[in-house]
Write a structure and sequence with these properties.
Layout: E1 2-7, H1 14-27, E2 32-37, H2 56-63, H3 69-72, E3 74-75, E4 81-84, H4 95-108, H5 111-115, E5 119-124, H6 135-138, E6 144-149, H7 153-170, E7 176-183, H8 190-201, E8 205-209, H9 213-220, H10 225-228, H11 233-257
Parallel strand pairs: 1-5, 1-6, 2-4, 2-5, 6-7, 7-8
Antiparallel strand pairs: 3-4
C-alpha cells in the first residue's frame, strides 16, 4: 500500500491535484482512497459529482460510536474511496483535534484492512503543521509527503515551513519529503524561485502543472480535468505527475527491501 500526503498553503490547489491524481491512478486499475483533512470537507467533491461527502466528525456528533464505516467512507467515480475528516462546530473546538478523532474512528473500524487500497492519498491543509494536521506525517499514516507550491512568496514560505516539519519527523523515523509539485500561477521567475527552494530543501520539483482554464471548466462540470478533457495538455501533465509520484514511492519501497 502506497501512502502519501499532499500539503501546501490554503488555496494552492491541493484538492484539485489530489482528485486528479486519484483519478489517474484509478484509471490505471489501482484501488485508491482519498482522505480530506481540511475542515471545509471539500477535498473529494470533484469525485462525487459536485456533492460533498458527509464528514466523519458530523457523523460522530450525530451518531457517536454507532456511526458505521460505510457511512464514513463512500465510493466516488472509478471506485475511488472517499472520506472527509471535517471540522468542529464553527467557533467551537479544535480543527486539529477533529482530524485526530476522524483518524481514530477509521482505525477503530479497521478501514484499511477492510478496503485494502493500493494507494492512500491524504489531502492536508498545511499552512501550520501541528496537532492533527501533522497526523499523516508523524503517526505513520503516510510514507511520503509532497508539497504543492507556486512561485508566490506566501506559497514558498508555507512550503519551507512544511518541509521543516517533515524533516523533523523524518529524523524520528516517520514520513519523508518526496518532492515539490509546482502549480504555476504565472508570476515572475516562478520556476527559478521554486527550483531555488527545492535546492535549499535538498529535494526536487517532481512535476509542473500549467495554469489552465480547463481545470475550472472541469469543476463546473463537477468532475476532474482528467475525465472532462482527457486529451488536453493539462491532463497529460497530471499523467506525468502520477508517474512521478509512483516512481518516488516505489523507489522508497524497493530500497527498504534491499
Amino acid at each position: 500500500m502506497l501512502k502519501l500526503a499532499i500539503y501546501g498553503k490554503g488555496g494552492i490547489g491541493k484538492s484539485t491535484i489530489a482528485s486528479n491524481l486519484s483519478t489517474m491512478l484509478a484509471l490505471r486499475g489501482m484501488r485508491v482512497m482519498q482522505i480530506g483533512c481540511d475542515p471545509k470537507a471539500d477535498s473529494t467533491i470533484q469525485l462525487h459529482a459536485g456533492k460533498k461527502a458527509v464528514p466523519i466528525l458530523d457523523l460522530m456528533r450525530e451518531k457517536g460510536d454507532k456511526a458505521c464505516l460505510e457511512e464514513m467512507v463512500t465510493e466516488g467515480r472509478h471506485g475511488i474511496l472517499c472520506a472527509e475528516a471535517g471540522g468542529p462546530t464553527p467557533g467551537l473546538g479544535c480543527a486539529g483535534r477533529g482530524i485526530i478523532t476522524a483518524f481514530e474512528a477509521l482505525e477503530e473500524r479497521r478501514a484499511f484492512e477492510k478496503y485494502r487500497p493500493d494507494v492512500v492519498i491524504y489531502d492536508v491543509l498545511g499552512d501550520v503543521v501541528c496537532g492533527g494536521f501533522a497526523m499523516p506525517i508523524r503517526e505513520g499514516y503516510a510514507d511520503k509527503v509532497f508539497i504543492v507550491t507556486s512561485g508566490e512568496n506566501m506559497a514558498i514560505y508555507a512550503a519551507a515551513n512544511i518541509a521543516a516539519a517533515v524533516k523533523c519527523f523524518e529524523e524520528r523515523g516517520y514520513a519523508s519529503l518526496g518532492g515539490l509539485i509546482l502549480n504555476q500561477r504565472e508570476v515572475k521567475r516562478e520556476k527559478e524561485k521554486v527550483e531555488e527552494l527545492a535546492g535549499e530543501l535538498g529535494t526536487k520539483i517532481i512535476a509542473t502543472l500549467s495554469r489552465s482554464s480547463l481545470v475550472t471548466d472541469a469543476e463546473e462540470l463537477e468532475c476532474t480535468v482528467c475525465e472532462a478533457f482527457p486529451d488536453s495538455s493539462i491532463a497529460e501533465e497530471y499523467e506525468k505527475l502520477a508517474d512521478a509520484v509512483l516512481a518516488v514511492c516505489k523507489t522508497k519501497g524497493e530500497g527498504e527491501h534491499a
